[in-house]
Specification:
The complex is a heterodimer of chains A (115) and B (113). Chain A contains no helices and 11 strands. Chain A has 115 residues and is mostly beta strands. The N and C termini of chain A lie far apart (37 Å). Chain B is globular, with a radius of gyration of 13 Å. Chain B has 113 residues and is mainly β. The chains are: A mainly beta (115), B mainly beta (113). At the A-B interface, strand 5 and strand 9 of A face strand 5 and strand 6 of B.
């Protein structure tokens, strides 16, 4: 089956610093990847759609200058949380569809804690 | 616009009892429907999916779900719940291939001995 990995699985950073989260499709190419954020006891909320070779599409209310997305290759998308604050602490999950498939393959998630 | 509703925020069942988790969706065309399970601090695990064909789909861990177009529902069922089934369950709907998913708010399942 298709596998999507995320790195790191958890990260703690100080307020004001930046942190990068990687999402990789290990055995298939993904021209599109999705980034979700999940707060405790809540559902997944789509943040942005990452497009290989072009700019990401952000959902309403998501600050594009704060959450920088780069889809550098057909197997890698990165999410950089810039100038992180405690309210950015959350569980970040990426997903990728295999081309032509209806199904999404989800990464295991990254737990970000900003102190 | 697509949307997914899970009316039950939290459900408690006894081990060995049957389970049904409700999911209603809103979508203009034939939806692609999914159920995922999430244990605390973990990612999502796909339980089952419906694209077309037989409206009763079987999944992993003994789960099944039935697509009812007339009711815009895709309820998840299990005849006998195990303590290890305690988790958060999410229903999701997808549109065209490669497009985003829309998630319900989730149902938290507690299993009591």
């Amino acid at each position: 089956g298709a596998v999507v990995s995320q790195h790191p699985s958890w990260v703690i950073c100080k307020s004001g610093t930046s942190v990068k989260i990687e999402c990789r499709s290990l055995d298939f190419q993904a021209t599109t990847m999705f980034w979700y954020r999940q707060f405790p006891k809540q559902s997944l909320m789509l943040m942005a759609t990452s497009n290989e070779g072009s700019k990401a599409t952000y959902e309403q209310g998501v600050e594009k200058d704060k959450f920088l997305i780069n889809h550098a290759s057909l197997t890698l998308s990165t999410l950089t949380v810039t100038s992180a604050h405690p309210e950015d602490s959350s569980f970040y999950i990426c997903s990728a569809p295999r081309q032509g498939a209806y199904e999404q393959y989800f990464g295991p998630g990254t737990r970000l804690t900003v102190t | 616009a697509q949307s997914v509703t899970q009316p039950d925020i939290h459900i408690t069942v006894s081990e060995g009892a049957s389970l049904e988790l409700r999911c209603n969706y809103s979508y203009g065309a034939t939806p692609y429907l999914f159920w995922y399970v999430q244990s605390p601090g973990q990612g999502l695990q796909l339980l089952l999916k419906y694209f077309s064909g037989d409206t009763l789909v079987q999944g992993i861990k003994g789960f099944e779900a039935e697509f009812k177009r007339s009711q815009s529902s895709f309820n998840l069922r299990k005849p006998s719940v195990h303590w290890s089934d305690a988790a958060e369950y999410f229903c999701a709907v997808g549109a065209n291939t490669g497009n985003q998913f829309y998630f319900g708010t989730g149902t938290s399942l507690t299993v009591i001995p």
